[in-house]
Amino acid sequence: MNQSPPTPQYLVHAGDPLRDRDTVLSIWWGNLGRTDRIAAKYDWFYLGCPHGAPLLQLLQETRTGQWVGTACAGRRRMRHRGRDLAAGVLVDLAVLPEHRSLGPALMLQQGLIDGGREQVDVLYGFPNPKAAAVFKRMGYQQATHLVRYARVIRHARYLRARMPAWLAPAAGWLLDAGVALRDGWRRWHGPRLRAEWGNRADPRMDALWAAASQGDGVLAVRDSVHAKWRFDDSPLATTRYLWITSPGRSELKAWFAVQVEDAALHVRDFWSDNGAHGLTAHYVQALIAAARAAGHASVSVEITGPEGQLQGWRESGFSERSQRPVFVRWNLANATEPVWFLTSADEDE
After folding, report:
1. pTM of the prediction?
2. Are residues 115 and 170 in the same domain?
C-alpha cells in the first residue's frame, strides 16, 4: 500500500510587498532592527523603490498556518560593459526565534534564488562571514570584499589611548596642525577646486554620470534618481552632499554623499569625472578639507573596486580598518566574474 509523502514542516511562498506589508512587519517586530522605524523603512525600501518591487519570500509553518519568516532581494540598477543589469541585493532575512535553524533560512534564500531566475540578472549580498559556507553551498561565489578605509583628522581622542590624558590635547593639536599644513600644501599644488555642501540630490549628477567612463566592471547607476531614493527619501539617516566644481563653473567634477555619526563623517557613495578609472587624490583632499572645516574628527568610506578606485583614497592617507565578504550569484548564461565597484550605498541601509 502506497503511503503519501509526509507534509513538510515549512513552505515558502512568493510575497507581494503591498499585500503582505502587515505580515512582514509582524515578523520583523522585535527580530529585525529598531522597532520604532521598521514601518518607515518598509514603506521606503519595499513600496517606494523606483527600480521596481523587491523580490519577497514568506515562510509558513504548515501545521499552524503561521507566517514565521521572510527574506527579500531589493531591486538595483547596474551596468556592465555598457549593458543594463537588473540586480537584487539580499536583505532583511528574519525568522521568528522558535523557528530559527538552518533549514528555514536556507528555504527562504532558495526561494529568492528561484524567484529571481526570471526577474534579475544577478543576486548579491553582504552576509556575516560565519554564513560564507552556507552561501557557497547555495551556489553563490565570493566575488570580493567590501573594505572600510578611514583617515583621522583630529588626533587627540586617538592619542589618549597612547599617552597620558593631560598630554593628549596638546599633542593632538600639534599633530592636527602639521597634518593640515601638509594637506594644504598638496591642495596648493593641485587644481583649484570649489567644495559646497548640499542637502538634496542634484540634476547635475545625471550629466556627470553620463559623461564619465563606466568601465568594464559591474557598478550601480549613480544618477539623481538613485541618490534621491537611496538617500533623500530614506527615513533611516540624514544624508548631505559635497559638490566639487571648478571655481566659476557649475558643472560637477565630483560628488560625495555623506552621513555623520558622532564626530565621524562617513562617505556612503561618490562619483567623479574620472568615473570607473577612480577618484583622484585632489578630490579626496577637497573632501578632507571640507570635513576638517566642519569640525569632524575622522572620515571613512567602504569600497570594493579596481586599484584605480582605491588609489586616491590611499594617497590621501586612508588606511584599511576592516572588511566584509561580498557574495554573488549570476542568472545569466556564461557569466564571467567581472570586477565589482561597490560602496555601502549598494546595501539597504
Report:
1. 0.93
2. no
- Note the pLDDT tens digit of each residue in 51-110: 999 999 999 999 999 999 999 999 999 999 889 999 999 999 999 999 988 899 999 999
Nearest to 76 by CA among 23, 116, 131: 116
Lowest mean pLDDT among 31-40, 97-106, 107-116, 165-174: 165-174
**How many other CB atoms are found less than 10 A from the CB of residue 182?**
11
Residues 179 and 226 in one domain: yes
More confident residue, 5 or 196: 196
Q: What pLDDT digit, counting tens, does each position of 223-251 carry?
A: 999 999 999 999 999 999 999 999 999 99
Beta strands per DSSP E along the chain: 10-14, 55-61, 67-80, 83-95, 122-125, 141-152, 194-198, 218-220, 240-245, 252-261, 264-272, 298-304, 319-330, 340-343
By CB atoms closer than 10 A (0-12, 13-18, 19+), residue 240 is middle
Residue-wise pLDDT tens digits, 276-300: 998 999 999 999 999 999 999 999 9
In the numeric block, the cell 541601509 is attached to 349
CATH of the domain at 256: 3.40.630.30
Residue 263's CB is within 10 A of a number of other CB atoms, namely: 12
Whether residue 215 is found in the same domain as residue 264: yes
Q: Which amino acid is at 295?
A: G
Q: Of the candidates 225, 289, 222, 234, which has an alpha carbon nearest to the alpha carbon of residue 259?
A: 234
Q: Compute how many other C-beta atoms are within 10 angstroms of the C-beta atom of residue 117.
A: 10
The answer to whether residues 159 and 282 belong to one domain is yes
Do 158 and 256 belong together in one domain? Answer: yes
Could you tell me the residue range of the domain that residue 220 belongs to? 147-346
Assess contact for 93 and 105: CB atoms under 8 A: yes
SS3 category, 229: helix
Distance CA 239, CA 256 (A): 10
Number of domains in the chain: 2
Q: 104 phi and psi, to 5 degrees?
A: -60, -40
